[in-house]
Amino acid sequence: MRIKNETTRLPRIARGRSLTVLVNGKPVTAYEGETVAAVLLVEGFRAFRHMPASAEPRGLYCGMGICYECLVTVDGMPNVRACVTSLRDGMTIEAGAQP
Ligand code: FES
User: Fold this and answer.
1) Residue 78 has pLDDT above 60, yes or no
2) CA of 38 relative to ligand 1 center, distance in Å
3) Would residue 51 count as lying in a domain?
4) Which atom of ligand 1 lies nearest, measured to the CA of 37?
């Protein structure tokens, strides 16, 4: 998760190198060390995909690679767990639900 706003009540945030990734074709600035889930949450996604049969939304649940609720497509590879996948510069991410 990324804290977006600076505040005097929190210590200064040390971020990794700036990266650009494509989220559903849109260039987005992210930071080295963040996960795919972090960039999706910052971009306003709460549902990362929908169930094929019922169309029920699915998103971040356990946040540690156990539940498989956060599956997205990364660089053309489907069913990648967003919560345990680190960002790389130029990565393409396809999530199922636009905010
Ligand atoms: S949120 Fe559970 S595996 Fe990603």
Assistant:
1) yes
2) 12
3) yes
4) 4
With cut-offs at 50, 70 and 90, classify the pLDDT of residue 84: very high
Best residue for ligand 1 mutational test, from 41, 46, 58, 66 (most atoms within 8 Å of Cβ): 66
User: Structural domain of residue 32, as residue ranges?
Assistant: 18-94
Amino acid at 62: C
* Residue 37 forms part of a structural domain: yes
Instruction: Say if 73 falls within a structural domain.
Output: yes
The span from the CA of 78 to the CA of 94, in Å, is: 9
Q: What would the pLDDT profile of 31-68 be if each residue is shown by its tens digit?
A: 999 999 999 999 999 999 999 899 999 999 999 999 99
Residue 49 covered by a domain: yes
Can you give 68-91 as a three-state secondary structure string?
CCCEEEECCEEEEEHHHCECCCCC
